[in-house]
Amino acid sequence: MNSMINESSSATTLRDNADVAKVLGRTYSAGFITDIEMTGLPPGLDEGTVRAISAIKGEPEWMTEWRLQAFHHWLTMPQPDWAKVKLDPIDYQAISYYAAPKAKPKSLDEVDPALLETYEKLGVPLHERAALAGVAVDAVFDSVSVGTTFRKQLAEAGVLFCSMSEAIREYPEIVRKYLGSVVPGGDNFFAALNSAVFSDGSFVFIPKGVRCPMELSTYFRINAQNTGQFERTLIVAEEGAHVSYLEGCTAPKRDENQLHAAVVELVALEGAQIKYSTVQNWYPGDENGVGGIYNFVTKRGDCRGDDSKICWTQVETGSAITWKYPSVVLRGDRAVGEFYSVALTHHFQQADTGTKMIHLGKHTKSKIVSKGISAGRSSNSYRGLVKMEKSAEGARNYTQCDSLLIGKKCGAHTFPYMEVKNPTAIVEHEATTSKISDDQMFYCRARGIGEEDAVSMIVDGFCKQVFRELPMEFAVEAKKLLEVSLEGAVG
Amino acid sequence: MLKIENLHARVAGKEILKGLDLSINAGEVHAIMGPNGAGKSTLGNVLCGRDGYEVTDGTVSYNGMDLLTMAPEARAATGVFLAFQYPVEIPGVNNTYFLRAALNAQRKTRGEKELDSMQFLKLVREKLKVMQISDELLHRAVNEGFSGGEKKRNEIFQMAVLEPKLAILDETDSGLDIDALKQVAQGVNTLRSPDRAFLMITHYQRLLDYVVPDFVHVLADGRIVESGDKSLALKLEEHGYAGLAERHPAGVGA
After folding, report:
1. pLDDT tens figures, A10-27
2. Collapsing DSSP states into helix, strand and coil, what is residue A345?
3. According to the model, what pLDDT value does residue A10 have?
């Protein structure tokens, strides 16, 4: 077995320019709180909590048992501490595991106007006539889905797109077949916790041979205080099916940290393609590092069939701590796994993110492009595993891992792990660390481009390879998000 | 247009410019020559407001404005342009996109309407006549993977598009072979106009064979020690800067 562990850290300088920092006052624009009557469970976690969540959702017995099994497994597990992040101990008994708007709408027309307004403000209108053209949206508010658009049109194509709660009730045989088949209930500490208490999420099923006629999207919003959000998403693409899915996330500004521990499972059967894009903008905490979301997520795709393809694209700008590794298990022969990531940290944010590519099938291919941008006093780590199993005849991986540093108090780290058990497999890794140099800044400014615009332009250029992978309208969004997130970074 | 009086500037605590005086009128082409370390590039950087260049004394008045108090991007918007000695690479940023962003930022500051892509493309095509650079260079990232000559030609092309009032060329001739030098010189000559002034910083007289200056100044030890017409450059070529030190001992001045 060949394995390689490599750490490189660096921190470099850009000049200090306090004036610029002062002028820039724009802050996290999604930080408002929606005033709405809520119902939920009191803080605390025991077997009763798990049963209560299952009961509220009207779940069948097997689902309750599945949750309890995960819960009991979770009790035996310690919280992992290997990530390069610093966090205070989490009191799992102080968290409320279920929060939902009191009114239960039957359809989008009955959804509380305050909720509709919330999503409107976030740029995600749920009225179908106002909705983003060609994008179907499932809106998840705290623990529950509040509405899914374009369901009828999708159903005509044979596509199932609904909340996870509904899927468990309406399509139990599909859910039972696939749930936990990629990320088992006891996979890891946070996945086990999620399996026990998950409250909602999105469910997508694309039947054999169907190309999903529109982009699917879920918009996650944490609103309630002292709650955790534990959503569970399952996407199944049958033989030859294609789907492109996007998730967006925001939360109000609050001084305490909130836990978000999601699980996403993707299953691609023979010849199927799943493209999963994330624009993550959870509240990152303030400029002193107070508050913000702990984003501890398990995302994994299974290229179960031959010639299948799964592509993760993520733009991570929010959260106090991001800890996630969207992975692909390349089981089928000639399966393709891709991971494109932009992770930006500013102020006191911490990110430990990357991917795992597990090659089992013959002539499987994976590609990793990771762009880390660190500003302020933040810490940004890439952690990745490329594993070529004995069976991975002729498999290939290409990894490119670039870090960009803005300012002199931030850090960038790279932890690439490689395990190669098949001598015909080829693994390539390239890494660079650079900073926005004074020379680049002066060059832009001497041409008339102001400081903030120059930083945006340089960062945008740095991220180009990843943005290219996002659906058009979201690439524009992502670019804007980076600009806002970087404001005051030149200081 | 530009009046520099008694300019003193420090870099990393070391005094480089020690009382420099220079006046440039619109339409004139001035060449500044001098030995290594005399302060030629420092002058260009100070005029464009680069960080790390500290002005300790003196004034620079540019079209009635106090240039030294302005941010680099504000200077650019009023028409000050620096062709870099070492043009900088910006990976992933398209060359044309960069140039349009620069032009529009300047126009916005000046209160002019920004150009849309079509208008900008038209302008680019027009300016390609001034400085022929290949389509491929236009679509590559800013200076990334450009040869030395391509970088310098790209600078002149940017100058053609941005249409500055005062163009400072910092050793634009260095590292160019004779063909590239001729192309660059031709670009500069095309841009000469009654309302535009040039300040050419150069080591060698050979650029001046192609871009004939109205004035030649010798910069030594942080100040202008001799001024004249083109014949001064030829004299320097013949006698070298060594003879200069004898004629103008440090601290005595012109």
Report:
1. 322 233 333 333 333 346
2. strand
3. 31
**Residue A31 backbone dihedrals phi, psi, to 5 degrees:** -85, 15
Facing A448 at nearest CB: one of B73, B86, B92: B73
| Global pTM exceeds 0.90 | no
ipTM: 0.94
What one-character DSSP code corresponds to residue A96?
Answer: B
Q: B217-246: per-residue pLDDT in tens?
A: 999 999 999 999 999 988 888 887 776 656
Question: How many other C-beta atoms are found inside a 10 Å radius of the C-beta of residue A6?
Answer: 11
Task: Find chain A residues with C-beta within 8 A of B85's C-beta.
Answer: none
Burial class (CB in 10 A: 0-12, 13-18, 19+), A51: middle
Phi-psi region of B69 (alpha: psi -120 to 50; beta: other; left: phi over 0): alpha
Q: What is the DSSP string of B144-173?
A: TT--HHHHHHHHHHHHHHH--SEEEEESTT
Say if B101 is an interface residue toward chain A (CB within 8 Å): yes
Do A449 and B102 make contact, defined as CB atoms within 8 angstroms?
yes
Helices (H), A44-84: 47-56, 61-75
Q: Which of B86, B87, B106 sits opposite A448 (nearest CB)?
A: B106
Residue A110 gets which letter from DSSP? G
Yes or no: say if B143 and B87 are a contact pair by the CB < 8 Å rule. Answer: yes
The CA distance from A313 to A343, in Å, is 11
Quote the mean pLDDT of chain A. 84
Distances in Å between the Cα of A445 and the Cα atoms of A29, A123, B158 are 28, 33, 14
The Cα–Cα gap between A184 and A180 comes to 4
The secondary structure element, H or E, covering residue B217 is strand B215-220
Hey, are the CB atoms on A439 and B51 less than 8 Å from each other? no
Q: Among the residues of A149-213, which ranges form H helices?
A: 151-156, 164-170, 172-178, 189-197
| Tens of pLDDT, residues A390-444 | 999 999 999 999 999 888 888 899 999 999 999 999 999 999 888 888 899 999 9
CB spacing of B87 vs A443 below 8 angstroms: yes
- Report residue A98: phi and psi, to 5°: -150, 125
* Coil/strand/helix, residue A127: coil
The phi, psi pair for B68, rounded to 5°, reads -65, -20
Q: How far is it, in rounded angstroms, from Cα A15 to Cα A406?
A: 10
Query: Tokens at residue A6, please?
Result: 């490599």
Average pLDDT over residues A185-206: 93
Task: Give the contacts of A334 (CB within 8 A, at least 6 positions apart).
Answer: A306, A307, A361, A362, A363, A364, A365
CB B35 within 8 A of CB B222: no
Q: How do B53-62 and B2-11 pair as beta strands? A: antiparallel
Question: Lowest mean pLDDT: which of A13-27, A35-49, A273-287?
Answer: A13-27
What's the rounded Cα separation, in Å, for the pair B19 and B56?
10
Query: With an 8 Å Cβ cutoff, are A438 and B88 in contact?
Result: no
Interacting residues of A465 by C-beta distance below 8 A, sequence separation 6+: A340, A369, A371, A400, B92
